[in-house]
Amino acid sequence: MAKAPKMCFDRLLPRDLKRMQLQREGAAGRSRAISLIGKQWPNGSTIRVRFLGGSASQKDLVRDVAPQWTQHANLEFAFTEDPTAEIRVSFDANDGAWSYVGIDNLDIPLHAATLNLGWQDEGVILHEFGHMIGLSHEHQNPDGGLQWNEQKVIADLAGPPNFWDPETTRRNVLHKYSADQLHGTEFDRNSIMLYAFPASWTVNGVSTHENEKLSTLDKAFVASEALYPPIDGGGSGAVALAVTEAQAASIGNPGEVDLFSFEAASAGRHVIQTLGATDVFMTLFGPDSQTAKIADDDDSGSGRNALIAADLSPGTYYVQVRHYDERRTGEYQVLVSR
Ligand SMILES: [Zn+2]
């Protein structure tokens, strides 16, 4: 019997598993949806990557391949020995290939791996680093039109090399993300985020080929306004806030994420809040870092506004704001006071 394909396991935190829904039978749409909302790093982030073990050649391959993403996304990967690195890459051959998604990585204890490369080739490195920057599986696209032969998929993945129990297979392959959790464009058969599977896995004979390269749409999507657009003159494009002055802003397009920065001139209690009628979600990073998450908040402010109160040391802070409902837009203000 032929071996089942090697499958990737994108690790989701428990709060997201609850939000999944079963695939819709016979969905015929062609739209592609590959970014879970609220997972992306602040635009322009430098993400530090540390290796937990691995041979020189394994590490060299990752350092060589992974930055293909940052030729398109406005992100940098900095390979470092720093124990506080946001990303920890392990090479455990017995643990498959998996990664946490986007800024979920910031919730994993610093001693633990966030991304495992149980085997190494260009395709799997690009795929797992795609998860790391916030992308999910193309085959879980809720409008992808895949009609799984569930029993066959569960049976094949229960054997080598994956040894998945039925629940793992349901979560990673058969279930689809609910549409309101996702950004997306059209379905892309060439996406690096689409895994290969045989026609026997679907009831309508659909199969896919293994993708080893970033597709044209992968490159365009990560550089789009919804994810990591390049900024003229470089940097993050963060809008500078003056402390105690409300800044008018708006989520102008569905899925848009706004980024602000402010200076804490002296140590002390600061309150960062949004104002207005738009239900936004806010995340605070710093000091002097776009990737050191301090807190996030949905509704602690007035009405559906976000509010974070924190004792800050002097430095530069970053505030990421998105709509709670990625299909919606709206105006709001953001105010830093102390
Ligand atoms: Zn994957």
Helical amount? 10-25%
Strand content: 25-35%
- The CATH class of the largest domain is Alpha Beta
CATH homologous superfamily of the largest domain? Collagenase (Catalytic Domain)
Total helices: the number is 6
Mean pLDDT: 84
For the biggest β-sheet, the strand order reads 1-6-7-5-3-4
Low-confidence segments: 14-34
Q: Could you tell me the CATH topology label of the largest domain.
A: Collagenase (Catalytic Domain)
Biggest beta sheet summary: 6 strands, mixed
What's the end-to-end separation, in Å?
67 Å
Written overview of the protein:
- The chain has 338 residues and is α/β, with parallel strands linked by helices.
- It folds into two domains: 8-222, Collagenase (Catalytic Domain), CATH 3.40.390; 239-337, Jelly Rolls (Sandwich).
- Helices cover 14% and strands 26% of the residues.
- It contains six helices and 17 strands.
- It has helices at residues 14-17, 56-65, 122-132, 150-157, 166-174, 216-222; strands at 8-11, 35-36, 46-52, 76-79, 87-90, 97-100, 115-117, 182-183, 239-240, 247-251, 257-264, 268-275, 280-285, 293-297, 307-312, 315-323, 330-337.
- It starts with 7 loop residues before the first strand and ends with a strand.
- It binds zinc ion (ZN).
